[in-house]
Amino acid sequence: MSIQWEKAERALISAQVLLQNGDRNGAVNRAYYSMFYTARSALVQIDSNFAKFKSHSGIISQFSKYLVVERGLHPNFGRSYSFAFKARMAADYKLEGVEMEKARKIVDAAGKFLSATSDYLPDSTP
């Protein structure tokens, strides 16, 4: 299991705990980072050259290309990843943050994202 994958799992658990405690913005942040670490780990497993991609937009773009388009991961996962990125920006930088219902949806999507992505990796063991 890669360090990035472990970080993805820990971030998801943190998101769930934060959500249970009413911290919607913190939950969105950790849920997004769970998706980011999942995507990064998946890309590196496909090709170690992807380790050079560190920017959020670069990881999102490469994930969509190599997991969604080339490997057939359902497009909803690419969309939920992009949606989580935008929500994380609002949670971190906008005064009002993110509504609780949106936070619940993003945390749920992050769990599905991690699970579904593992099924599309070369050896299915992150």
Plain-language structure description:
With 126 residues, this protein is mainly α. It has a single domain, classed as Nucleotidyltransferases  domain 2 (Four Helix Bundle (Hemerythrin (Met), subunit A)). It is built from five helices and no strands. The radius of gyration is 14 Å and the shape is globular. The termini are close together.
| Series of secondary-structure elements, N-terminal to C-terminal | HHHHH
- Number-wise, the strands total 0
Q: Could you say what the CATH architecture is?
A: Up-down Bundle
What name does CATH use for the topology? Answer: Four Helix Bundle (Hemerythrin (Met), subunit A)
Q: What's the CATH H-level homologous superfamily?
A: Nucleotidyltransferases  domain 2
Number of individual domains? 1
The stretches of 5 or more residues where confidence is low (pLDDT under 50) are: none
Strand content: under 5%
Summarize the structure.
The chain is mainly α and 126 residues long. It contains 5 helices and no strands.
